[in-house]
Here is the input.
Amino acid sequence: MSTVSSWSTTVLPVVETMATLAFAVSGILESARKRLDAVGVCTVAFLCAFGGGTLRDLLLDHRPFFWVQHIELVWAVLGLSALSMALLRDTHREPTERFILIPDALSLGLFTASGTQLALLAHLPSLVAVLLGIVTAVFGGLMRDLVCNEIPSVLKDHRPYAVCAFAGAWVLVLLWHVGAEPWWSLWISASTTAGLRGVALWKQWSLPSWRN
Amino acid sequence: MSTVSSWSTTVLPVVETMATLAFAVSGILESARKRLDAVGVCTVAFLCAFGGGTLRDLLLDHRPFFWVQHIELVWAVLGLSALSMALLRDTHREPTERFILIPDALSLGLFTASGTQLALLAHLPSLVAVLLGIVTAVFGGLMRDLVCNEIPSVLKDHRPYAVCAFAGAWVLVLLWHVGAEPWWSLWISASTTAGLRGVALWKQWSLPSWRN
Amino acid sequence: MSTVSSWSTTVLPVVETMATLAFAVSGILESARKRLDAVGVCTVAFLCAFGGGTLRDLLLDHRPFFWVQHIELVWAVLGLSALSMALLRDTHREPTERFILIPDALSLGLFTASGTQLALLAHLPSLVAVLLGIVTAVFGGLMRDLVCNEIPSVLKDHRPYAVCAFAGAWVLVLLWHVGAEPWWSLWISASTTAGLRGVALWKQWSLPSWRN
Here is the structure.
């Protein structure tokens, strides 16, 4: 148990920092495409970076929030937003969608795995842990699209996104129940999710939908 | 007091199951009309089914959430979504709006009554209990419309919906204060709401609005 | 410490009442411009009036919510909505935007200052307190625009709004750390925010944005 607890206090924050900054980047790029103002850029970066984790902490009743415990993350996202605006505002090209996809797939994997693991540490049932993992990873992007006044792409674009997170989260639950090392479980689960997402994009897999 | 407590642990869950599945159906039908993908169908079904109750539990600071305590509900909504997609995806007709109205009116009544009752059990003032009842019933549908990028119909369509819930919730508060049997109170309140909703649709009652 | 505590129990509620009603007015005017029905008017008035403070209380894990403790506020917003509909529904002119700007600037200042102060009283880091102050002030209007199916103006219109709140909140944090009287701090901070907002509108200051 002490391994698990030292794990959750030392390694998870590093993972969350990486995933947080990657999501912030995808939020900044989206708000550049939508031509939001400086406040809009920071807000959408914040929503993408902290939205999912905040909802997870709220649902788990876990205080203080991870970004209150790691206030440097908030400064980092603020600085990243300001820097991006300074560097990108004069470019004439819109940031390509492809540029968003790579950090997004990595964060998807990392947030899903860490969210699922925190829910398992809180003794929640497996299915709830899986759902909380998906919520952690997907809610930020869903809020980003809502705020930008679009039907969230995660619900509409027929490309596997939440489904990859669903698969990766079940991998983590499986590894948890067979008693695997938390560190390895997290990376295997995150890689599964990110890998599935990459293959889905590459092979252009499509979700079932309604006939027209 | 033991009657109330056995009531709240045995009968309320049954009521919530019925209302939850009816709302999930209305979410699935709406997402079929919007041609969302499989993830979108499940998500909108979840939002409709669990959105209002989750917000109520969050506002009441009531953990674990009702769907964590009744994890079979989550499986049921997942299964219902998959089944509906399998059965409905080849139909050429759009699901008619009328088909949505019936489960929706029943859930409106049941969710309002159970939400109001839980708030009264938590010793909140009558008006707050009424508002929490309405939030429990209406928030899921409001999120459904937000996610589908529409002005929520509950705010705009001039047909009494939240107003029926408002009336039904006050009926429950009244019965609570005269000490009526909780079981009967719940059904009388839920029937009042659903009945008013039915009459409002039938007689085409219209809410006051702005002159153009 | 007893000064701070008596301050927070006696004066803050008065400030919140004023700010709440001013935000409710701005919500009612917006919903009139959007031609929502009676339920829509009340809901948007509620969102504007209580949305930011409720999210703040939820994030601070502060129960009961301020509007449960001050139930008369809820009645006041309900009454104000009914009264406004009765008075305004026959006017042919749309409420002018200018008419929204004045109560909005005052509430911006008051909500930011009181939200920041409550977060400081809860021993949160300065930056988190500033962000909570902004959330308290801005979230209601953001929800108003989301529900009305628009990209929130706070993110898009290039006029300083959240930035004024950011400046005013740091003034309060500064005064807090030098040990200034809470009452004066609050008013100085609120006036700074509202004043900056006024000057920004008058001088037509514009936020940095993307080149087209």
Remarks:
- Chain B is about 80% helix and 0% strand.
- Chain B has a mean pLDDT of 86.
- The longest helix of chain B spans residues 2-33.
- Chain B touches chain C through 28 residues (CB under 8 Å).
